[in-house]
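Pasting as-is:
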Amino acid sequence: MSKNPPSFQPPLDDLPVADDLVAADLDLRLSTPSTVVVDARLEVEDASGPDSIELALVIPRSQCRGERPLLSALLDAARTAIARATRAGTTPLTLLPRRVVTLAAGRPYVIPVF
């Protein structure tokens, strides 16, 4: 987790989608013959203010068309990463999840998980 100073954050656009396929080139951390890994961050808020948790969204290559994942696969990967990052609810969550953000062509977009 990284502590970020409270600051104004402008609203972000939802990730562009066409026919359940992400219609943007996501910034990938890793691409293998069996998976693609997309960097994202879970923005949260607690009593001390905004914070973020880095996430790695692991998507099976079978759920992609080239380097672009199906939206359903991206959402599944985001939910899995959030559960992993928050220990799947096994400990009291003091952080209020706000949104999941990823980069596409260097521009931040919201993944519509919540």
